[in-house]
Structure formats: structure tokens, C-alpha cells
Design a protein that fits this description.
Among the domains are: 121 residues, no CATH class; 283 residues, Rossmann fold (3-Layer(aba) Sandwich), CATH 3.40.50. Helices cover 41% and strands 12% of the residues. The protein has 19 helices and 17 strands. α10 links the parallel β7 and β8. The relative contact order is 0.13. The N terminus is likely disordered.
Length: 608
């Protein structure tokens, strides 16, 4: 008998061709479109058209932020006088530095030091005249604008952040590192190669422009293919519905822990970041350590999925997967692992199960996952009512948020690394950075449904409903403090998506034993941290539920770093909370409606 959640055409039990999803008939039809009047459609259509010109940024929100800053600065003569004084002092500093450079033109001495994360001027060539004077002048100017856009009394914090961010973006455009005549490294390369680097750079630009226009992936991504050299851990899809496929991976040990692992990845990208190449696959590492692993592979939604909401992702995603895993493993409790947005949804599901008295989970592991969004980093720049309304109207028009629109926002947050550094190396130096599996995965982006993304941004980012006990599942709210299973929480030091201070707040909200790990790296590279990866370290400490709270910076300063990957720490933690090894479970459970449908990585992962 087929599982009651979904009815398949018998022919679709076999694997569908790559790039095509299996057709299916659901017993519950999609939600109807929200009713929109003609007048509302006019307003929404206008803003949706405008969004195509502004890359999804609301000009009204930007104008409001600028006006707030400008009016308060106008009404602050003391602040303006302070800025005049700072400008005079910086001018004298630069003049004194110029005089010093005239006597010692190639001095390593500086009058201002770049921020630690600013790598634009690290080359020794920037210490030579006149480039030392050029980049020092730029840094002093950048520092002055930071002083001008911050610390103006009366400006709301969100508006201050937007204005400071916008000023920084505009200054980054005119950085001397971005131009041939003011970048000594580019000049040296040009003279050394007789200008051939610029010829190659022009060819690179033309190729990138053609690929972008054709909707193709970046150069080199074709060398990485899902199912060939990425997402190759063996297994089978054992369940499929309109929103996800559930993959059960083949065990690699004679015995396994009886408690299975279910991994819920984010649906903002394809699932296989946790099963990249053979040497850096978290799935393979877990199976090699004697665990039975299941993974959700989300569908890439289109306009027809516009009305799928957060509750659909919880029920058709996590709840359906938990039910399948328990039936296949004979009712065993589950070690649940969630990554990024998938971890947030998993926490919501765990809180709902705890509220309802359902004893399904054995443990909860959250990787770079935010629960409290009050310190969500620079992503908060794009989160206010004006900006969200603008974004919602753009999604209303097309039914989803496109991957290119999300990519643009993330690139702005790290424009020096992801935009200008790319331009310098690829177009001015004429050098193609080799494609790696993580970059190829990053280029395989997905869309997000209109309703789900709107609910996520408003309820979680804007209103912080989950952390403050207002997020409803059913007709009652859920709270993180109801979760009683032990938690393993991982933050990454250089995370621009889920800053580790924000991830750490799980300690403040929960009422259970929490093992917190802080690892070096960013949102993706810090999680894909296989043993043997060079220059890796992490900090780890377990806090019992009755232990007094320690603020994140104090915790970091008091916790000694450990060299190596944090992955073995996770498997040791899971093993300590698992029963003795036993024979592996069967692949699927055909008698209960979960037959193996096709080989991993399934079909949804190929949707473009």
C-alpha cells in the first residue's frame, strides 16, 4: 500500500531522467493564491518592475535611511564640527606622511592600518611610492566616512547600519586596488607580460558575460557533476513527495548504531554541501563511523509552488522524513541534524514535538543555525517593513525568489572578497582561479517560494517570533525552552550569514544540555571541515542545563582551541548518546510504503 501522504503513478517509481522531476498526484492540492484586487495588483506590479532595476533593493527604504541620517546630521552642529576637526587632523597626518615618503619613498611605515579583514593592500608593492601615499589616502578617507555615517545621535540603528554600509560600498567601488594605474601589482604584471594579462582579462570578461546572459554556471563548474564526482555517497531515495526526496545512505560498516541520523539541509541551496566530494563528505564520514544516515533533498520550487509556506516545509519535509525514518528503523529515536535554515526549521519541529509530548528525537545538532535573529549580522540591512514589502511584491510577481537575486545580496555583504577581488584577479591580472567543489556547489543555487520566504523573513528575521515565544505551530506557540534532548551547536568564526554570536544564543534560550563548538572558517567552509584539512581548529565546551550562562566573548576567551576538524568531536558526542552497535536496518521498507525508488542522489537535485 502506498504511503498515505502521496500517491505515485506506478511508472514514476523508477528514476526520472536527469533534470526532470517525477510527476505525482498529491492527496492535498496546493494552497490557493491570495486574493489580490486590481488596485493592489497595480501597486505590486509597479514595484516588481522597479525591483528588476534596483536588484531587489527598495529605493524607499534606502531613501528613508539616508533622510534619517542627513536630517539628524544637519541638526547636529557639534557632530559636524567634530567631523571637520577629524578631516583637518587626517589631512595633516597625510601631509606629514607624504613628507616622510619624499625622504624615504619605499618605507614600510604607515599612518593608518587597514582592518584585519581588508586584504587589498597586503602586497609589499603597496609600500612603494606613490602607491603607499595613494592607498593611505584612501584608507583615511574611508575612516572619515565611517565616522560621518556612525555615531549621529537620534538616527535609528538600522538606518545607521544601512547608511554606513552604502557608504562603504560606494568607497569600495573607487578603491585604488580596482584600477590599473593605481594598483602596483597589476602594473607590474602588465609590464612583465607586455599587456597580455589585460588581453586574457578581456577574454575572461567576455566569457563570463556570455555565460551570465545564457544562464550558464561559471567557468570550470562543468568539471564538477552531481552523481559523478559530487554527491556520490551510495544510497537510495526511499520516499518522495512534492517538496522533498528522502535519501537513505548505504552503511559502510558491518554494524551500526541503532539510532539513525536525519540531516535537514537548508533549501536555499542544494543539499549536497554535506556530501561534496568523496574526501570531504560529512555523509561518508558519518557512515564510516558506524551511523545510519538519512538526508532530505529539497525540490527546487517554481512558480507553481508559490503558496508553499513554512508549515508545508515542516510537515511535508521534516515530519514526513521523521515518520519514514522511524518506520524504516523500527521506531528508533533519531539523531536530528540541521544546517542553516534547515536547522531553524528543525528547531521549530523539535519544539513542537516537545510541546505535544512526542518523544521522537534522541539528540539535536544545529550547524550554523540561528534561532534568535536580533544579531543576524549585515543581512539585517535588508530586513525592515519597507524592504520586505518591496521584496514580497517582487516575489508575488514571479512566485518565488530567484537564486540570482539571493546571490547578489550575499555578494554585497562581502563585496571585497566576492566582487572586487574577483574582478582584479580575473579581469586585470588575467588569472582564472581554479574551480573547486565548494565553489561549484555554490553556483548550483535554488529558488524559494513566495509564501515561505515571506513568512520566514517576517516571522523570524523581522519579528523574532521563535525566540520570543510567538511562533505558532497549529493553534499554539512553540518555545525552544521546551526542548529537552541534548544539543550540539556549531558556529563559525567568520560567518556572514549566521554570525556565531547569534548562533550562540541557543544557550540563552534553551533549557537542556548544550555542547557548543566554535570552529574557524565561514558559513560553508567552516562546516565542511573534514579531518586532515589544513589550518583547522575549534573550541568546544558542554554546558549543563543548570550551569550559569556565559556571554559569547567570555566563553571564547576562556575556551582553549583544539587543532583539527570538529567532525570527530561530533561523532564521539553522538556515539556517547547511542546504544551498542547492531545490524544495519534494511534499505527502505517496501511493506510499509517506503520502497527504494531510485539510486542516490535522486532526481530533485538535478532540477534547475
Amino acid at each position: 500500500m502506498a504511503h498515505p501522504n502521496v500517491v505515485f503513478d506506478q511508472a514514476n517509481r523508477n528514476a526520472a531522467p536527469k533534470g526532470r522531476a517525477p510527476q505525482m498526484i498529491m492527496d492535498a492540492p496546493p494552497l490557493p493564491h491570495s486574493h489580490t484586487t486590481l488596485e493592489q495588483a497595480l501597486d505590486k506590479g509597479l514595484k516588481a518592475a522597479l525591483a528588476k532595476v534596483t536588484a531587489g533593493l527598495s529605493p524607499i527604504a534606502l531613501t528613508a535611511a539616508y533622510t534619517d541620517w542627513a536630517l539628524h546630521l544637519t541638526a547636529a552642529p557639534g557632530k559636524r564640527l567634530e567631523l571637520l576637526e577629524k578631516a583637518s587632523k587626517k589631512a595633516w597626518r597625510l601631509a606629514a606622511y607624504a613628507a616622510f615618503c619624499a625622504a624615504a619613498p619605499n618605507t614600510p611605515k604607515t599612518c593608518i592600518t587597514p582592518l584585519p579583514q581588508d586584504r587589498r593592500f597586503r602586497s609589499k608593492a603597496w609600500q612603494n611610492w606613490p602607491f603607499n601615499l595613494i592607498h593611505q589616502s584612501f584608507l583615511l578617507n574611508q575612516q572619515w566616512w565611517h565616522n560621518a555615517t556612525t555615531g549621529v545621535e537620534g538616527v535609528t540603528k538600522q538606518h545607521e547600519n544601512v547608511v554606513e554600509f552604502a557608504a562603504r560600498q560606494m568607497l569600495d567601488v573607487v578603491s585604488p586596488s580596482n584600477f590599473i594605474l593605481t594598483n602596483p601589482d597589476v602594473l607590474q604584471q602588465t609590464m612583465r607580460e607586455g599587456g597580455m594579462n589585460l588581453v586574457r582579462g578581456w577574454q575572461n570578461w567576455v566569457e563570463d558575460a556570455q555565460r551570465l546572459h545564457a544562464g550558464q554556471k561559471p567557468k570550470g563548474a562543468e568539471d564538477f557533476e552531481v552523481g559523478r564526482n559530487m554527491a556520490t555517497a551510495p544510497g537510495h531515495v526511499v520516499y518522495r513527495n512534492r517538496l522533498m526526496e528522502l535519501i537513505q545512505y548505504t552503511p559502510t560498516t558491518q554494524t551500526v548504531r541503532p539510532e539513525p541520523i536525519l540531516i535537514t539541509p537548508a533549501w536555499i541551496m542544494k543539499y549536497y554541501i554535506l556530501d561534496l566530494s568523496e574526501q570531504n563528505s560529512l555523509v561518508r564520514f558519518l557512515t564510516d563511523q558506524g551511523f545510519t544516515v538519512f538526508m532530505i533533498s529539497w525540490k527546487n520550487p517554481d512558480a507553481g509552488d508559490r503558496d508553499l509556506g513554512m508549515e508545508d516545509y515542516r510537515t511535508l519535509g521534516i515530519e514526513a522524513a521523521l515518520g519514514a525514518v522511524q518506520r524504516i528503523t523500527d521506531g528508533q529515536k533519531i539523531h536530528a541534524i540541521g544546517y542553516c535554515l534547515g536547522g531553524t526549521l528543525l528547531t521549530i519541529a523539535a519544539a513542537a514535538m516537545a510541546r505535544d509530548g512526542r518523544d521522537t528525537l534522541k539528540s539535536l545538532t544545529l550547524l550554523a543555525t540561528q534561532i534568535d535573529f536580533t544579531e543576524a549580522g549585515e543581512l539585517q540591512l535588508f530586513i525592515n517593513d519597507s524592504q520586505l514589502t518591496f521584496l514580497e511584491d517582487m516575489m508575488w510577481d514571479q512566485g518565488y525568489l530567484d537564486s540570482t537575486q539571493m546571490t547578489g545580496a550575499f555578494q554585497l555583504l562581502r563585496s571585497n572578497d566576492l566582487i572586487w577581488s574577483y574582478m582584479i584577479h580575473h579581469y586585470l591580472m588575467g588569472e582564472r582561479a581554479p574551480m573547486i567543489d565548494l565553489m561549484a556547489w555554490n553556483a548550483d543555487a535554488t529558488r524559494m517560494p513566495y509564501r515561505m520566504h515571506s513568512e520566514y523573513l517576517r516571522q523570524l528575521f523581522l519579528n523574532n517570533d521563535l525566540a520570543e515565544g510567538r511562533y505558532h505551530v497549529g493553534d499554539q506557540p512553540v518555545t525552544v525552552s521546551d526542548i529537552r534532548v541534548p544539543a550540539f551547536v556549531v558556529g563559525t568564526e567568520r560567518d556572514h550569514v549566521a554570525p556565531w554570536h547569534s548562533v550562540y544564543k541557543f544557550n540563552l534560550l534553551s533549557d537542556t544540555d548544550v555542547t557548543f563548538v566554535l570552529t574557524n572558517g565561514g558559513h560553508n567552509a567552516g562546516i565542511v571541515s573534514e579531518p586532515g584539512h589544513p589550518r583547522r581548529h575549534y573550541r568546544i565546551e558542554t554546558r549543563a542545563d543548570h550551569t550559569p550562562y556565559a556571554d559569547p566573548d567570555h566563553w571564547r576567551d576562556q575556551t582553549e582551541p583544539v587543532k583539527g576538524s570538529w567532525w570527530p568531536a561530533l561523532t564521539d558526542w553522538l556515539a556517547a548518546r547511542s546504544a551498542a552497535p547492531c545490524a544495519p536496518p534494511p534499505m527502505g521498507a517496501a511493506a510499509q510504503g517506503y520502497p527504494p525508488l531510485c539510486a542516490a542522489p535522486g532526481t530533485y537535485v538535478f532540477q534547475q
